[in-house]
Design brief:
- There is one protein chain.
- By secondary structure, this protein is α/β, with parallel strands linked by helices.
- The chain contains 20 helices and 27 strands.
- The strands form 7 sheets. Strands 3-4-5-8-9-10-11-12 form an 8-stranded parallel β-barrel, surrounded by 7 helices.
- Helix 18 links the parallel strand 20 and strand 21.
- Helix 3 runs parallel beside helix 5, helix 12 runs parallel beside helix 14 and helix 12 packs parallel to helix 20.
- The protein binds NADP nicotinamide-adenine-dinucleotide phosphate (NAP) and iron/sulfur cluster.
C-alpha cells in the first residue's frame, strides 16, 4: 500500500491476531441504545456498515476496526434491566446481521463484553465486595468464589458465541469502574480469599478471563483488553500496578491493550469538551515499550491531524475514537481523500449521545441528526422538486444552527437556496458559544456548514436584513431568526452597568471586578465560566491536570493529587428565583463539571431570590422576606431568551409559504440539538 501523503502513520495497516487492520483508527465502543430497541440490530447493522465503509474513494476504508457497545455476558452483568446480553446461541442471528454488514464493507468488528458489576441499574447486581457505588442505586452482592468462577466462564462463553456470530474479536471491558476494575482496585475489592488482597490475587480475575478466552477462541481471534491506566478515584491503581497488569494481560494472551481513563464515578472530566484534545494521550505513552502488543490511546481525539500527531509522538500504536464516528461516519474516508476540512467534527458536547443514553433514549448526535437513524434517513436523499414539479426558490432567514442546517441540507438536495443573515457572519448562538472556554470546538461546526453551503451552491448573504418585500422572489421562506436575550421588567438597559450575555460573549463590554449573573441556566453557567476563567500561558493539557488534580506521574493511587487552581479574575455571584439547585437542568454527563468549575472558582450561588432593581448603590433583591443589597460593577442578564419573529405575521398574512424553526419557533428549552434537527428534517421534507 502506498504511503499516504498527509497521514502516513494513520494509514499504515496493522496485522494483529491474523487480521489486517486497514488503518490505525479504531471506532471505540459506544452504546447507542439501538441494541435494545425494536428492530435495533437491523439499524445497528446499517449504522456500523456506514462507519466501516470506504465509500467511493479508491483504496479508502472506514474505521480500521469497530468495537461494539457493551454486551453483557450474563443476567447479573447487565447495565440496566433491558440491556443486551450474549449468553445463548439463539441470540447469534441478530449479531450476524451486524458482522455481515461490516464484513460486506471490508471492515472488522469486535464485540465488547461488559459486566457492569456494581454500576448495574437493577437489584441483581454483583461485585467483588458488597460496596455500593456513589453513582449506583443498588448495593451489590459479593460474588462467592463459585460465583467468580461462573462469571469467568460467562465471559468466555460470550467470547465463544461472539466468534460464532462472526465477530473478529472481543474487547474485554476492564476499565471505567466496571466489574473487572472493581476486582482490581482496593477501593472496591475487600476480599480475603484468592480473588482479593495482594495485587496478584486481584489480577487473577482479568487474567483468567483473558487466558481462558484465548484458549477457547484460538490464536486468530483478536482479544482487546481495555485497561484502566488512570483510575482517577481514591484507592485506585498506581503506575507500577498498571504496568504489572499490562504485562500479565499480555502474557494471558491479549492481542491489543486499549486505554481506559477514569471510573464513571470519578469527579474529573475525561471526555467532555473542556478536556484538551488528546489530553490523556500522555498516559498511554507512559506504557509504550513496557509490553510488546499494540497499545491504543483514546479520549478527546476528534481530528485526523491529532490522530497523526499522537501516533508520531509515540503515544500509541493505534487511536480509538467513538463519538467522532457518530458525528461523521465518513471521517476516515474524508481524511484519506484529502478532505479533512469537510469533516463534521464532534464537538464533545455529549448532549445527544451520552446524555440521551443516560436517560434511556437512543443515542444521536447534535451535529449529525442522521446518527443512528441511517435506515430512516438515507445518506443521499432524493433531489428537491423531482417528479415534474417546477423548481422552487427557498429563502432561509437567519444563519444560526437551525438555518445553517436547513439551508445546507436543501442545497445538498439540489435546491435553489438563499441564506440571509443580518449580522456580518454566520453562526448565531454557536458563534457566541465558541467564546466560552472549552467550547472552541463549536467553531468546527460553522466551518463544516460553511463548506457544505459553498460546495452545494447555496447563496449566502451576510449583513443583509431580509424584509417582507424580498419574500416575493421566493416560493418558500424559512424563518430561523433565532432568539434574543430576555430582559426582565426591572432591568433598565439604558444603564451602562446592566448588560446582556451576548454583549459579554461578543467582547463588547469590559466587566468589572464584581459582577452578578442573573439566571443560572446553561447560559448563566457559560457566562460564569467565561468571566471567572483565569488566564494561563501553560500548556492546556498541563493546566488541565493542575486544575483538576491529576498526577502526571501516577505515583499516587488513582493518579489523584491536590488541585492547584489559578485565582479567578473577578468576584461573581449567580442568581436565580427558584430555590432548586443551580444548573439542575444542565446535561447529565456535563452538568456536574460546570457546577464544580464555578464552585471551585469561588462563584457564590444565590437562589430563591426576588429581584427588585439595580441602582447606583448596587443590585437590590429580596431573600427569605429580607431586603438585600449587593454592590457590583455589572449585572449580566442570562435570564433566558425570547423568539425573534418580526417577519412571521406579515409574511403569513400575504399567504406566503412560511416555515418557522429553531429558537424562532420556541425559545423555551431551546438547544442546538433541536435547532439543527428541526432545520435538517424540514429540509428533507420538501
Ligand atoms: P435556561 O437554562 O432556561 O435558564 C434561564 C435562567 O433564567 C434560569 O436560571 C431562570 O431561573 C432564569 N429566568 C427565567 N426567566 C427569568 C426572568 N424573567 N427574570 C430573571 N430570571 C429569569 O436558559 P438559558 O440559560 O438561556 O439557556 C438556553 C438553552 O440552551 C437551555 O436549553 C440550556 O440548557 C441550553 N444551554 C445549555 C448549556 C449547557 O448545558 N452547558 C449551555 C448553554 C446553553 P429562574 O426562573 O429560577 O430565575
Ligand atoms: Fe460529539 Fe456532541 Fe455528537 Fe456526542 S452529540 S457525538 S459529543 S457532537
Amino acid at each position: 500500500m502506498p504511503i499516504h501523503p498527509q497521514f502516513p502513520l494513520t494509514f499504515t495497516p496493522l496485522d494483529v491476531a491474523g487480521l489486517t487492520m486497514r488503518n490505525r483508527v479504531i471506532m471505540g465502543s459506544m452504546h447507542t441504545g439501538l441494541e435494545e430497541s425494536k428492530g435495533g440490530f437491523d439499524k445497528l447493522a446499517a449504522f456500523y456498515a456506514e462507519r466501516a465503509s470506504g465509500g467511493d474513494v479508491p483504496g479508502s476504508s472506514g474505521a480500521g476496526l469497530i468495537v461494539t457497545g457493551g454486551i453483557s455476558p450474563n443476567f447479573r452483568g447487565r447495565l440496566g434491566p433491558h440491556s443486551t446480553t450474549l449468553w445463548r446461541s439463539g441470540q447469534i442471528p441478530k449479531h450476524r446481521k451486524v458482522t455481515d454488514a461490516v464484513h460486506n464493507e471490508g471492515g472488522l468488528i469486535a464485540m465488547q463484553i461488559l459486566h457492569a458489576g456494581r454500576y448495574a441499574h437493577h437489584p441483581f447486581s454483583v461485585s467483588s465486595s458488597p460496596i455500593q457505588a456513589p453513582i449506583g442505586r443498588f448495593k451489590p452482592r459479593a460474588l462467592s468464589a463459585r460465583g467468580v468462577e461462573r462469571t469467568i466462564a460467562h465471559f468466555v462463553r460470550a467470547a465463544r458465541l461472539a466468534r460464532e456470530a462472526g465477530y473478529d474479536g472481543v474487547e474485554v471491558m476492564g476499565s471505567e469502574g466496571y466489574l473487572i476494575n472493581q476486582f482490581l482496585a482496593t477501593r472496591t475489592n475487600h476480599r480475603s480469599d484468592a480473588w482479593g488482597g495482594p495485587l496478584d490475587n486481584r489480577l487473577r480475575f482479568p487474567v483468567e478471563i483473558v487466558s481462558r478466552i484465548r484458549e477457547q477462541c484460538g490464536p486468530d481471534f483478536a482479544i482487546i483488553y481495555r485497561l484502566s491506566m488512570l483510575d482517577l478515584v481514591d484507592e485506585g491503581a498506581c503506575w507500577d500496578e498498571v504496568v504489572t497488569q499490562a504485562r500479565a494481560i499480555e502474557n494471558a494472551g491479549a492481542s491489543i491493550i486499549n486505554t481506559g481513563i477514569g471510573w464513571h464515578e470519578a469527579r474529573i472530566p475525561t471526555i467532555a469538551t473542556m478536556v484538551p484534545r488528546a489530553g490523556f494521550a500522555w498516559v498511554t505513552r507512559r506504557l509504550m515499550g513496557t509490553v510488546a502488543i499494540p497499545l491504543v490511546t483514546t479520549n478527546r481525539i476528534n481530528d485526523p491531524a491529532v490522530v497523526e500527531q499522537v501516533l508520531s509522538d509515540g503515544c500509541a500504536d493505534l487511536v480509538s475514537m467513538a463519538r467522532p464516528f457518530l458525528a461523521d461516519p465518513e471521517i476516515m474516508v474524508k481524511s484519506f481523500g484529502g478532505r479533512s476540512d469537510e469533516i463534521n467534527t464532534c464537538i464533545a458536547c455529549n448532549q445527544a449521545c451520552l446524555d440521551r443514553i443516560f436517560t434511556g433514549q437512543v443515542a444521536g448526535c447534535l451535529v449529525n441528526p442522521r446518527a443512528a437513524r441511517e435506515l430512516e434517513l438515507p445518506a443521499v436523499p432524493a433531489p428537491v422538486d423531482v417528479n415534474g414539479k417546477s423548481a422552487r426558490r427557498f429563502a432561509v432567514i437567519g444563519a444560526g444552527p437551525a438555518g445553517l442546517s436547513c439551508a445546507s441540507e436543501l442545497a445538498r438536495r439540489g435546491a435553489d437556496v438563499h441564506l440571509f443573515e443580518a449580522s456580518p457572519s454566520i453562526g448565531g448562538q454557536f458563534r457566541l458559544a465558541q467564546q466560552v472556554p472549552g467550547k472552541e470546538e463549536f467553531a468546527h461546526t460553522l466551518r463544516y456548514y460553511s463548506g457544505l453551503l459553498k460546495r452545494h451552491g447555496a447563496k449566502v448573504h451576510v449583513n443583509r436584513r431580509f424584509n417582507a418585500e424580498d419574500a416575493k422572489d421566493f416560493d418558500v421562506v424559512i424563518l430561523s431568526t433565532g432568539v434574543k436575550p430576555r430582559v426582565p421588567a426591572w432591568a433598565d438597559l439604558s444603564r451602562s452597568d446592566i448588560v446582556t450575555y451576548d454583549q459579554v460573549l461578543r467582547g463588547e463590554v469590559e466587566i468589572g471586578s464584581r459582577a452578578a449573573i442573573i439566571g443560572s441556566g446553561g447560559i448563566g453557567f457559560d457566562v460564569a465560566d467565561f468571566l471567572s476563567h483565569p488566564s494561563s500561558t501553560a500548556d492546556p493539557a498541563v493546566q488541565f491536570q493542575k486544575d483538576w488534580g491529576v498526577d502526571p506521574t501516577v505515583d499516587t493511587p488513582g493518579g489523584l493529587i491536590k488541585p492547584e487552581r489559578l485565582p479567578p479574575p473577578r468576584e461573581l455571584w449567580m442568581f436565580q428565583r427558584k430555590s432548586t439547585k443551580p444548573g439542575a437542568n444542565l446535561g447529565k454527563s456535563t452538568g456536574w463539571i460546570h457546577r464544580a468549575t464555578v464552585k471551585k472558582r469561588g462563584v457564590t450561588a444565590v437562589t430563591g431570590v426576588t429581584y427588585v432593581k439595580l441602582d447606583d448603590a448596587g443590585l437590590h433583591y429580596e431573600l427569605g422576606g429580607e431586603a438585600h443589597l449587593l454592590k457590583v460593577d455589572h449585572v449580566v442578564l442570562c435570564a433566558g431568551q425570547v423568539s425573534v419573529l418580526d417577519l412571521a405575521q406579515e409574511l403569513q398574512s400575504k399567504n406566503q409559504d412560511v416555515h418557522i424553526i429553531g429558537g424562532a419557533k420556541a425559545a423555551r428549552d431551546l438547544d442546538a440539538e433541536r435547532a439543527i434537527e428541526e432545520g435538517y428534517l424540514l429540509a428533507r421534507s420538501f
